[in-house]
TrEMBL record:
<dbReference type="GO" id="GO:0003735">
    <property type="term" value="F:structural constituent of ribosome"/>
</dbReference>
<dbReference type="GO" id="GO:0006412">
    <property type="term" value="P:translation"/>
</dbReference>
<dbReference type="InterPro" id="IPR035980">
    <property type="entry name" value="Ribosomal_bS6_sf"/>
</dbReference>
<keyword id="KW-0687">Ribonucleoprotein</keyword>
<dbReference type="InterPro" id="IPR000529">
    <property type="entry name" value="Ribosomal_bS6"/>
</dbReference>
<comment type="similarity">
    <text>Belongs to the bacterial ribosomal protein bS6 family.</text>
</comment>
<keyword id="KW-0694">RNA-binding</keyword>
<feature type="compositionally biased region" description="Basic and acidic residues">
    <location>
        <begin position="128"/>
        <end position="173"/>
    </location>
</feature>
<comment type="function">
    <text>Binds together with bS18 to 16S ribosomal RNA.</text>
</comment>
<dbReference type="Pfam" id="PF01250">
    <property type="entry name" value="Ribosomal_S6"/>
</dbReference>
<keyword id="KW-0689">Ribosomal protein</keyword>
<dbReference type="GO" id="GO:0070181">
    <property type="term" value="F:small ribosomal subunit rRNA binding"/>
</dbReference>
<protein>
    <recommendedName>
        <fullName>Small ribosomal subunit protein bS6</fullName>
    </recommendedName>
</protein>
<dbReference type="InterPro" id="IPR020814">
    <property type="entry name" value="Ribosomal_S6_plastid/chlpt"/>
</dbReference>
<feature type="region of interest" description="Disordered">
    <location>
        <begin position="128"/>
        <end position="181"/>
    </location>
</feature>
<dbReference type="GO" id="GO:0022627">
    <property type="term" value="C:cytosolic small ribosomal subunit"/>
</dbReference>
<keyword id="KW-0699">rRNA-binding</keyword>
Length: 181
């Protein structure tokens, strides 16, 4: 004997549950999800080849019903650790407004491509206006050497006058061996 339909967790005859509040949004009224996508290309490809890769990946997104808002080429940067014997890589950011299927297809094609070392896709609430944090960091790094900004002022020398004194002699290997015994 089965319980009455009112007591069932999923009553028969309903094709899904209404969200809390009972309002159902019509299909197509929502915006597509927003993503920030970064890919790393091998260090031995040229910047022009990276641009061609970026154009090809934009085409994948647009062919699957999405759009790419902003692209940023961050340049060749050193990696923290080697990836497939590469110590450096070309970094590129894409701001994507696309359905999940388009992003999955993009990632699938990038995994197949030998020139792409690593990918990272993050879903975001909104895209940042203006340059990304990496480009702002590069602008900050372009300030120049410290000498252009002046000396240390009234803070004194870095070593506090110690650089003129001779260094204390280091113990020789014989003295170290006697200390160990």
């Amino acid at each position: 004997m089965s319980p009455p339909s009112e007591l069932r967790a999923f009553p028969k005859g309903k094709k899904g549950l209404a969200p809390v509040g009972g309002k159902v949004k019509p299909k197509g009224s929502e915006h597509m999800p927003l993503y920030e996508h970064v890919f790393l290309a091998r260090q031995d490809v040229t910047a022009q080849q990276v641009e061609e890769l970026t154009t090809r990946f934009k085409g994948v997104i647009e062919a699957n019903g999405g759009s790419v808002g902003k692209t940023e080429y961050w340049g060749v940067k050193s990696l923290t650790y080697r990836i497939n014997k590469n110590r450096k890589a070309h970094f590129t950011l894409l701001n994507i407004d696309a359905p999940a299927a388009a992003v999955q297809e993009l990632e699938r094609q990038q995994r197949i491509d030998e020139d792409v070392l690593r990918i990272l896709t993050l879903r975001v609430e909104e895209h940042e206006d203006g340059p990304s944090a990496m480009l702002q960091k590069r602008d900050r790094d372009d300030r120049g050497e410290r000498g252009e900004r002046g000396d240390r002022g009234d803070r004194g020398d870095r070593f506090g006058g110690r650089e003129d004194r001779p260094r204390r002699p280091r113990p020789t290997e014989e003295v170290q061996a006697e200390e160990e015994n």
